[in-house]
Design goal:
This protein is mainly β. Helices cover 0% and strands 42% of the residues. The protein has no helices and 19 strands. The protein has strands at 14-21, 47-48, 60-71, 74-92, 118-128, 131-136, 141-148, 159-165, 175-178, 189-190, 198-199, 204-207, 210-211, 218-222, 229-231, 236-239, 248-254, 263-269, 272-273. The strands form 5 sheets. Strands 1, 2, 3, 4, 5, 6, 7, 8 and 9 form a 9-stranded antiparallel β-sheet that branches. A 3-stranded antiparallel β-sheet has the order 12-16-15, with no helix packed on it. A hairpin with a 2-residue loop joins strand 3 and strand 4 (74-92). It is elongated. It starts with 13 loop residues before the first strand and ends with a strand. The mean pLDDT is 92.
Length: 274
């Protein structure tokens, strides 16, 4: 049966949009401004758009032109995909120094212009309970003011932007920086199934083994070992036995996972002969 991992689903708690005007990126090289990790400070050259419409979110719309070929009574005997593209968008609520760069910018700060295309590099940052996904455009996107709410009494003014993304030479639209996936941890299992017999008066040493779990492991026991033998926390059973016996000992190993450590136990007979 396939494994279901609910933690791999995404229910976004927040999103932020940052932009850099294309003229502010020397030689069009955005690489120096791509965060090294999700915990890295976002370069101050990125301009924060501000409050956005949470209900609208950031729609990501893929488009692909499909051409079908017919021939000699065989409809659609072959199809080809062409002109793949991606658009994204966001709805800004703030009238600030950043949004005025792409919401009907005029020839001067005190002017409002006719609609025109403006180009920006874009950085989206999404967060879902500790998981962070950052998308950065390797090439500038063409911004289009696709809708303006207008100025209405007691209404929220908003600016709906559509970002037409250009593919880079590899056909890529975004550089992705995300929280590193946590590798699944195998269950803690004691792999030692039996121990060789010891002999009275002969030095004895055997190491118990276990797989899985997280971090360092600590060993304990329940039961009385033959006289002269002892178990270390590292799982080494050693000493020089001085009396014969065949007790069944329960060995327990505990890992160092936090906040809850995992444990495993197994009963193994420890035999000492004369």
């Amino acid at each position: 049966m396939a494994t279901v991992n609910a933690d791999a689903t995404r229910i976004w708690d927040g999103a932020e949009t940052y932009v850099i005007p294309v003229a502010d990126v020397p030689n069009g090289d955005i690489a120096p401004y791509v965060p090294a990790s999700v915990n890295a400070t976002i370069d101050p050259k990125w301009l924060f758009v501000g409050l956005q419409d949470a209900d609208a979110g950031v729609p990501i719309t893929p488009e692909l032109e499909i051409v079908h070929f017919d021939g000699f009574g065989h409809p659609r005997y072959r199809s080809k995909a062409r002109r793949g593209s991606v658009t994204t968008g966001f709805t800004a609520f703030e009238d600030n120094a950043v949004t005025r760069k792409f919401v009907l910018p005029g020839s001067a700060g005190n002017r409002i212009g006719a609609p025109k295309g403006t180009r920006f590099f874009v950085l989206y940052r999404f967060e879902d309970e500790g998981y962070v996904d950052i998308l950065v455009t390797p090439r500038p996107a063409l911004f289009e003011l696709s809708s303006h709410s207008g100025k209405t009494e007691a209404g929220q003014e908003s600016y709906e932007m559509t970002c037409h993304h250009a593919n880079d030479a590899n056909g890529d639209v975004f550089i992705r920086v995300e929280t590193a996936a946590t590798a699944p941890v195998d269950d803690l299992v004691i792999t030692t199934t039996s121990l060789p017999a010891g002999v009275i008066g002969t030095p004895y040493s055997q190491t118990l083994t276990a797989t899985g779990g997280t971090g360092a492991k600590t060993w304990t026991k329940t039961g009385t070992l033959p006289t002269g033998l002892a178990l270390s926390t590292a799982g080494v059973l050693s000493g020089t036995p001085t009396a014969a016996g065949t007790p069944s000992i329960t060995f327990t190993v505990t890992d160092s996972a936090t906040p809850t450590a995992d444990t495993a136990s197994k009963s193994i007979t420890v035999t000492v002969t004369a």
